[in-house]
Amino acid sequence: MTENKRNKPLTLSELKSYGMALLTRREYGAHELLTKLQSKAEGDDAEQVLHWLQEQKLQSDQRYAEMLLRSKSARGQGPQRIRQEMQQKRLNGDAINLAFENYEGDWFEQAVNTYRKKFSATAITDPKERAKRQRFMLYRGYTSDQISHALAHGHEECTNF
């Protein structure tokens, strides 16, 4: 009996409440939220609720992209990796571009900080070690210019003991 109740689609009002409850916990991209709403809805109710949430300014891909950019950059990820993740989450290209335009951080400085955090005071001893560090920074999503800058300036503070 309880299994039928779980599988029963939500009414439009219940679906709105469910959508708002999800958005009170964290930001969602439109595609991700639509997928969650569709799991509880029937027909095109999920699309209607999503549009309603967007009209009420409760869901915004722009706001979600900015939040994702701030949180991922704070974790030391570079612009290429963050952009790729945003595209995988099916965010609108305009929202992605606007989030990067509004970003106030310095990617070169962040690359140096990420490099220092990982490799602290150890100097590069051979080409293999340099390649290893470059691969790490590439994996993190930094551009080749940002990586070169990090390798060049990553040990400046460390040598002034």
If you had to describe this structure to a student in words, what would you say it looks like?
The protein is an all-alpha fold and 161 residues long. The protein folds into three domains: 54 residues; 42 residues, Arc Repressor Mutant, subunit A (Orthogonal Bundle); 53 residues, Orthogonal Bundle (Arc Repressor Mutant, subunit A). α5 runs antiparallel to α6 and α8 crosses α10. The protein is elongated. It starts with a helix and ends in an 8-residue tail after the last helix.
Poorly predicted runs: none
Q: Determine the N-to-C terminus distance.
A: 71 Å
- Structural class category: mainly alpha
Give me the count of strands.
Answer: 0
- If you compute it from the alpha carbons, what radius of gyration comes out, rounded to the nearest whole angstrom? 22 Å
Strand share of the residues?
Answer: under 5%
Biggest beta sheet attributes: none
The residue fraction in helices comes out at: 55-70%
Shape: elongated
Task: Please outline what is shown here.
This protein is mainly alpha-helical and 161 residues long. The chain has helices at residues 2-7, 12-25, 30-38, 45-55, 61-74, 79-88, 93-102, 107-119, 127-140, 144-153.
Describe how the helices and strands are arranged.
Blueprint: H1 2-7, H2 12-25, H3 30-38, H4 45-55, H5 61-74, H6 79-88, H7 93-102, H8 107-119, H9 127-140, H10 144-153
